[in-house]
Amino acid sequence: GALLYYLRTLPLNVGDRYSLDRYFRPDRNPVRLEVVRRERIEVPAGTFETIVIRPTIRTSGIFSENGQAEVWVTDDARHLMVRMTAKLSFGTLSLSLREITNVANSARVLSLR
Distance (Å, rounded) from C-alpha 102 to C-alpha 12? Predict the structure, then answer.
């Protein structure tokens, strides 16, 4: 989770690749992030212009080199996560933003589905 918050602070341009030693388990570092494309998507919370990021962590889990995970964040200064998908051996995990509320000029996530 903290890694997703950290990536929100990075400049995210298509083609950029990051190698980060910030994963909480040192044996899993470095974490690699690849900014793969821009995409307009629709989720229950609305339609968003997004940046798609592909994370890879040295593990056997969903973010492994063999895993196929992608994270969609808004293409603005907030970089809010609006979708995440991961292909698993038994199916696909998909999280989508259901609702956001503006509170004092900053968005707060209410729930993911």
Answer: 23
Q: Which of 62, 64, 65, 66 is nearest to 85 (CA)?
A: 62
Least trusted range by pLDDT, from 33-37, 59-63, 74-78, 108-112: 108-112
In the numeric block, which tokens belong to residue 42? 């629709």
Is residue 15 left, alpha or beta, with left meaning phi > 0 and alpha meaning psi from -120 to 50?
Answer: left
Q: Each residue of 54-85: pLDDT tens digit?
A: 988 766 555 545 557 899 999 998 899 999 99
Residue 78 φ then ψ, to 5°: -75, -30
Task: Return the domain boundaries, the chain.
Answer: 2-112
What would the two tokens of residue 4 be?
């997703």
Structure tokens at 45: 């919370």
